[in-house]
């Protein structure tokens, strides 16, 4: 380390990881949901049932946000770990 770039710490650390606004899901969750008309709420992470694989912006029974997506949509959106 040493004192390279020392002295002016503070402002830089905050803007690093801002992409953490949606829940992500495992591939297993997605596969099970895809076989079973399931989807997930990207706001609270709750599983939803009776959702078509390409459903978008369905209302979440848990949190009330219209952020339930079908399994295939979640995969397309890149919310799979
Ligand atoms: Zn929700």
Structure description:
The chain is α+β, with helices and mostly antiparallel strands and 81 residues long. It has a domain of 54 residues. Helix content is 19%, strand content 12%. A 3-stranded antiparallel sheet has the order 2-1-3. The longest helix is centred in the middle third of the chain and has 9 residues. About 9% of the residues have low confidence. The structure holds zinc ion. The site of zinc ion has 8 residues, from loops.
Tally of helical runs = 2
> How many strands in all?
3
Main sheet? 3 strands, antiparallel
Unreliable spans are 12-18
Shape: globular
Distance between the termini: 33 Å
Quick check: average pLDDT? 84
| Gyration radius from CA atoms, angstroms | 18 Å
As a percent range, the share of strand residues is 5-15%
List the secondary-structure elements in sequence, H or E.
Answer: HEEEH
Instruction: Name the strands of the widest sheet in spatial order.
Output: 2-1-3
Ions, cofactors and other ligands present here are:
zinc ion
Helix content: 10-25%
The SS-based structural class is alpha+beta
Present the secondary structure layout.
Elements: H1 27-35, E1 38-41, E2 47-49, E3 68-70, H2 71-76
Compact overview of the structure:
The protein has 81 residues and is α+β, with helices and mostly antiparallel strands.
Provide keyphrases for this structure.
81 residues, alpha+beta, 12% strand, globular
